[in-house]
Amino acid sequence: MQGQLDLFALDAPPIATPVRTWADVRPGERRTYDVPGSPWRGTWTVRRIEQHPSAPYALIVDLVNDDGRVWQACPHRDAAADVTVELPGVSR
After folding, report:
1. Which entry of 43, 69, 70, 82 is 20 to 30 Å from 16 by CA?
2. Alpha-carbon span 65 to 46, nearest angstrom
3. 79 alpha-carbon distance from chain centroid
4. pTM score, two decimals?
5. With DSSP H G I counted as helix, E B as strand and the rest as coil, what are the percentages for the chain, rounded to 5?
6. Cα–Cα distances in Å, from 84 out to 14, 28, 60, 80, 87?
7. DSSP single-letter state for residue 32
8. pLDDT digits over 19-62, tens only?
9. In degrees, to the nearest 5, what angle opens at C-alpha 38 toward C-alphas 16 and 22?
10. Which residue has the higher pLDDT, 23 or 3?
11. How far apart are CA 44 and CA 75, in angstroms?
């Protein structure tokens, strides 16, 4: 019986780390947007997050960067809250 249990343990898929979505984010949290070449690249603090009045799947998010820039975004509630894009041939 023990051999059968070991076999099933090896067949189990690995447990992936859950991705934090915008639906999980609260004001005061810091989010990362790391897309090479983007003017919005950096770490942002969430000032306000609320349900979009016209689209139940979207949120309105006000973000502020350490340098004072402000960004208002309307992400899908199930989208990843941190974005990192690796481009081939582009160094950081």
Report:
1. 43
2. 9
3. 6
4. 0.71
5. 15, 35, 50
6. 22, 20, 21, 10, 10
7. E
8. 789 999 999 999 999 988 888 899 999 999 999 999 999 999 99
9. 40
10. 23
11. 14
Query: Which of 35, 43, 29, 36 has the alpha carbon at shortest distance from 71?
Result: 43
User: CA distances (Å), 61 to each of 10, 77, 84, 85, in order?
Assistant: 42, 10, 18, 21
Which tokens go with 12?
A: 């189990």
Beta-strand ranges (E) seen in the chain are: 30-34, 42-51, 59-65, 70-73, 83-84
Strand 83-84 and strand 30-34: the pairing is parallel
Are residues 76 and 61 in contact, defined by beta-carbon separation less than 8 angstroms? no
Residue among 17, 41, 24, 21 at smallest CA distance from 81: 21
Sign of the CA dihedral 38, 32, 65, 74?
Answer: positive
